[in-house]
Amino acid sequence: MKQWVQQDTASQLSRERTEINRIIDNKDFVKNTEFSSKFTESARGIINQLTALENYKNQDGVRVANMQIWAQNNTANQLTAARRSIESWVNEKGYATTSAVENKVQETANSFSREISNVRNSIPTSVGGRNYISDSDKLNSKRIFTVGINGINQ
Length: 154
Prior knowledge:
The structure is a single chain. By secondary structure, the chain is mostly helical. The protein has helices spanning 2-26, 32-58, 60-93, 98-122, and strands at residues 146-148, 151-153. A two-stranded antiparallel ribbon has the order 1-2. Strand 1 and strand 2 (151-153) form a beta hairpin.
């Protein structure tokens, strides 16, 4: 009897397990092994995405530096284009630019400086040489007046 009860219980458990599996299969429930593999697959996918995000985040410094270089170059190019456009517009209108006026003023100042240097170089600095006073050879025959502390001397 004991053996029969054990066999009957085992048979009944087997039928119940079969029925439970059929119900689970009909309800689209996931079995433990299938759940475990899907969970592991999902976990790996999440880990891969986190790793990709971490790598992307770690490259922020490089991207920021590249963006700064691009912004500087782009700004310089835009300023150069704007300056050329303004210079072209000014030239078309016939206006003088600041740099042209500054160059002309500097040129004029340099010209004055050269002329002053030429005049200084033509002034004798020693006694002798050519005498530029007219009738200087007759100076001894003329009366010469000198001005001193006490007045005019003859």
